[in-house]
Write a structure and sequence with these properties.
single chain; 64 residues; alpha+beta; four-stranded mixed sheet; 34% helix; globular
């Protein structure tokens, strides 16, 4: 799975700040391996990457 992107305005509209996140300089591979699992859905919004696995509609709305 890829990390999709979303603008900050779109992120505010869908309430992306309620999901767990980490900074964009963090290791995606490491976070998937240690915390989120290999099949998690990640969306980058601004300077952070959010785990939106519990709400896949947000992942589907984001662009590649």
């Amino acid at each position: 799975m890829r990390v999709k992107r979303m603008t900050v305005a779109e992120g505010k509209r869908v309430g992306i700040d309620r999901f767990p996140n980490f900074h964009k300089t963090g290791s995606i591979r490491g976070m998937k391996k240690l915390y989120y699992g290999a099949e998690c859905l990640l969306v980058r919004c601004g300077s952070y990457i959010y785990n939106v696995t519990s709400d896949p509609q947000i992942y589907n709305q984001a662009t590649i």
